[in-house]
Amino acid sequence: MRPLTETETKTFFEKLAKYIGRNITHLIDRGDETFCFRLHRDRVYYVSEDVMKRATNVGRDQLISIGVCFGKFTKTGKFRLHVTCLDYIAQYAKHKVWIKPNGEMPFLYGNHIVKAHIGRVTEDTPEHQGVIVYSMTDVPLGFGVTARSTSDTRKLQPTAIVVFHQADIGEYLRQEDTLF
Amino acid sequence: MDVSEVLAAHKQKFKSVTVEGKLIPVDYDLGLIAAYDQNPVDEIELKDNAQLLLNEIFQLPTVSDDNGIMAMLPTPTTQLPREKPLPKPKPETRWEKFAKAKGIVKRKKERMVFDDNSGEYKPRWGYKGINDDGTKDWIIEVPQGSNPMEDQYEARREAKRERVDRNEKRQQRNLEEAVVAAKMDQRAIGRGQRPNMDNARAMKRKELENQILISKAATASAGKFDKGLKDDLKARGVRRQFAPNVVADMSNEKSESMSILNKIVGKNGEDLVNVRKVEARHKKAQM
């Protein structure tokens, strides 16, 4: 467990900013408690200072997980967000997509979202923008990246992919052992 | 006839040239036509000081020529500060270091030396000097066991060229080492001493070793499948250093991540997406 280096912080924030933009500030500088990002076995954890200090007593080999896992660094140095961070990024999301009940199942099985399943979209969402996927009852289901901007979507056929799947809460079952 | 009265009357017309005694005597540097008065400043005294200085000048030995009578000024005694800064000490060359260790002292040699052949004094080297290296010989004996067809003049020239080249290489090496030493040993230079060359040599050696290692690894497999030699140079890895996990004040970490965030997202709150670009693309798509 160690703090992130400058380059690591940069790649991490760049990915996170695609979903919540400047709202990362609210994660770094919270009113209630000091939270920090820590790297452990290539995974980035969002931990309160208190928990982090306690975790220093645990050996590196014994420590399995601390706080909330936000994602991991790939071996090529890119950063990949995990669905475990959904609770935080759903709070501060800038662009959202709501899907109809008949589209929930395919998305939760790891498929992309087609136009027919879209219920609502935040206005003026640009292309390749990170979006949070909600059910029509406002339950966050996961996140993805838009394939087209909102205006372009109108011209598309109902079977065309509109949001690329990035992570969904079905992964809690499918990738149980590698997620945290 | 008594003229003392007339003289006295004439003298009365002028102001007195005598000045009352000063508390601290005035220093003169007549070479620079200057007087230094240590007493507290007083306007009237300033005139007196000028008088004192002139009195001193008038006591100097004089010469007279067509231009009139002139006083002979002595050499100035005041030390003026030098105009230019002191030259920086030069780093030792390898030879200087060796000579110091061996106790070899440079001796001054006369420029002219006696030439036995011509029976007169000639410069030690240079134009019409005695150091012609035998190149002015009109005949050279072929040394024992050497190729008789070889041009002995050419061989001499070649030998000399080699000597010069080697010396130039050494000069170059001294310069390179001096640059490194000057960079490393600023403290000694600040004290006006010669920089220490020992570390410079070690540093240059390390630099060379690094270059050798780099060139060695420049193979198709980036050195992965190369067979190493015994006792060969080994690359020393870079030690990574990370920030400490727990510090007393966490606000520093916070501010650092904030500054990184500001760099990424931009100061005025605009996001990663280039709105202008998106708009342009959108317009293009509509057309």
Helix and strand topology:
The complex is a heterodimer of chains A (180) and B (287).
Chain A: E1 2-3, H1 6-20, H2 24-28, E2 35-40, E3 43-48, H3 49-55, E4 68-73, E5 79-81, H4 86-91, E6 96-99, H5 101-108, E7 113-114, E8 118-121, E9 130-135, E10 140-146, H6 150-153, E11 161-168, H7 171-174
Parallel strand pairs in A: 6-9
Antiparallel strand pairs in A: 1-2, 2-3, 3-4, 4-5, 6-8, 7-11, 9-10, 10-11
Chain B: H1 4-12, E1 27-29, E2 34-36, H2 43-58, E3 62-65, E4 68-71, H3 94-102, E5 112-115, E6 120-123, H4 152-184, H5 186-190, H6 197-216, H7 251-265, H8 275-286
Antiparallel strand pairs in B: 1-2, 3-4, 5-6
Keywords (chain A): Nucleus, Ribosome biogenesis, RNA-binding
Family (chain A): Belongs to the NIP7 family.
Function (chain A): Required for proper 27S pre-rRNA processing and 60S ribosome subunit assembly.
Question: Please, could you describe this protein's structure?
Answer:
The complex is a heterodimer of chains A (180) and B (287). Chain A is α+β, with helices and mostly antiparallel strands. Chain A has 2 domains: 88 residues, Nuclear Transport Factor 2, Chain: A, CATH 3.10.450.220; 80 residues, PUA domain (Archaeosine Trna-guanine Transglycosylase, Chain: A, domain 4). Chain A is 27% helix and 30% strand. Chain A has 7 helices and 11 strands. The two termini of chain A are 14 Å apart. The model of chain A has no long low-confidence stretch (mean pLDDT 90). By secondary structure, chain B is mainly α. Among the domains of chain B are: 59 residues, no CATH class; 116 residues, no CATH class. Chain B has a two-stranded antiparallel sheet. In chain B, strand 5 and strand 6 form a beta hairpin. In chain B, helix 4 packs across helix 6. Chain B is flat, with a radius of gyration of 41 Å. The relative contact order of chain B is 0.05. The mean pLDDT of chain B is 83. At the A-B interface, strand 1, helix 1, helix 2, strand 2 and helix 3 of A face helix 7 and helix 8 of B.
